[in-house]
């Protein structure tokens, strides 16, 4: 563990620059790596970073690990990632909000890149791209099978990790709670639209993260070629059965 692992907690709102929100459902295998990456990125911002872990129906050691890093924690029972993230954002004190998944690690320079992009006044916010922890032909094909139709529906956007000013997150009412899948693409599209009304661009920070391949490890690298119905579920966005399988009920995560 990092010597600088402790994030700030219970401080004045004016002291917080970044609020990092992590939805977490039984993430004991991954969340330590995620928090460690945030701690490294936060070293340039001593006592200016809070991390909010939304504990979603956890039955493992996720809460214990989060509290060891002095994270803000709250309990949430929803099977809806939009509601889970919005619940975390409602507690946020930081001027800048960042969302990250528990099985993702941010780069050491991500927070400084976010600050630089927003301070330029050219960007409304944006997303992050990066790498999977491993690559195969099946993963590439499955990823493209999902990205291409989402591109036609939502336009050219990046997801992964989101970043924006809290006021702009609030201006678009956060994540759409009617959507159970592809809520991230919907959020990106609406943030991009807000930017256009203010003469700002939607930005992408490159090589800013590494994310796990746990779904490919479990379902197989060719999963979306074998199950095109999942692609349709992502495009529709409100299929509870598919969402439960993809995110909420699979204990082999």
UniProtKB/TrEMBL annotation:
<keyword id="KW-1003">Cell membrane</keyword>
<protein>
    <recommendedName>
        <fullName>4,4'-diaponeurosporenoate glycosyltransferase</fullName>
    </recommendedName>
</protein>
<keyword id="KW-1133">Transmembrane helix</keyword>
<keyword id="KW-0812">Transmembrane</keyword>
<dbReference type="Pfam" id="PF02709">
    <property type="entry name" value="Glyco_transf_7C"/>
</dbReference>
<keyword id="KW-0125">Carotenoid biosynthesis</keyword>
<keyword id="KW-0808">Transferase</keyword>
<comment type="pathway">
    <text>Carotenoid biosynthesis; staphyloxanthin biosynthesis; staphyloxanthin from farnesyl diphosphate: step 4/5.</text>
</comment>
<comment type="similarity">
    <text>Belongs to the glycosyltransferase 2 family. CrtQ subfamily.</text>
</comment>
<dbReference type="InterPro" id="IPR027791">
    <property type="entry name" value="Galactosyl_T_C"/>
</dbReference>
<keyword id="KW-0328">Glycosyltransferase</keyword>
<dbReference type="InterPro" id="IPR001173">
    <property type="entry name" value="Glyco_trans_2-like"/>
</dbReference>
<keyword id="KW-0472">Membrane</keyword>
<dbReference type="InterPro" id="IPR029044">
    <property type="entry name" value="Nucleotide-diphossugar_trans"/>
</dbReference>
<feature type="domain" description="Glycosyltransferase 2-like">
    <location>
        <begin position="19"/>
        <end position="127"/>
    </location>
</feature>
<comment type="function">
    <text>Catalyzes the glycosylation of 4,4'-diaponeurosporenoate, i.e. the esterification of glucose at the C1'' position with the carboxyl group of 4,4'-diaponeurosporenic acid, to form glycosyl-4,4'-diaponeurosporenoate. This is a step in the biosynthesis of staphyloxanthin, an orange pigment present in most staphylococci strains.</text>
</comment>
<feature type="domain" description="Galactosyltransferase C-terminal">
    <location>
        <begin position="158"/>
        <end position="195"/>
    </location>
</feature>
<dbReference type="Pfam" id="PF00535">
    <property type="entry name" value="Glycos_transf_2"/>
</dbReference>
<feature type="transmembrane region" description="Helical">
    <location>
        <begin position="139"/>
        <end position="165"/>
    </location>
</feature>
């Amino acid at each position: 563990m990092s010597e600088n692992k402790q994030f700030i907690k219970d401080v004045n709102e004016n002291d917080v620059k970044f609020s990092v929100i992590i939805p977490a459902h039984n993430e004991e295998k991954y969340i330590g790596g995620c928090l460690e990456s945030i701690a490294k990125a936060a070293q340039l911002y001593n006592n200016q970073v809070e991390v909010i872990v939304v504990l979603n129906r956890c039955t493992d050691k996720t809460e214990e690990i989060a509290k060891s890093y002095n994270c803000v924690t709250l309990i949430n029972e929803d099977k809806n990632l939009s509601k889970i993230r919005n619940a975390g954002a409602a507690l946020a004190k930081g001027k800048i909000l960042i969302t990250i998944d528990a099985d993702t690690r941010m780069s050491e320079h991500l927070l400084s890149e976010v600050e630089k992009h927003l301070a330029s006044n050219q960007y409304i916010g944006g997303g992050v791209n990066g790498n999977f922890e491993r690559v195969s032909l099946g993963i590439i094909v499955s990823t493209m099978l999902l990205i291409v139709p989402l591109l036609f529906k939502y336009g050219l956007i990046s997801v992964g990790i989101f970043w924006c000013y809290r006021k702009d997150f609030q201006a678009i009412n956060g994540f759409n709670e009617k959507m159970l899948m592809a809520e991230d693409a919907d959020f990106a599209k609406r943030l991009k639209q807000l930017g256009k009304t203010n003469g700002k661009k939607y930005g992408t920070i490159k090589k800013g993260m590494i994310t796990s391949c746990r779904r490919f490890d479990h379902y197989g690298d060719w999963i979306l070629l074998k199950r095109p119905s999942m692609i349709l579920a992502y495009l529709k966005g409100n299929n509870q059965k598919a969402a439960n399988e993809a995110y909420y009920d699979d204990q082999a995560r």
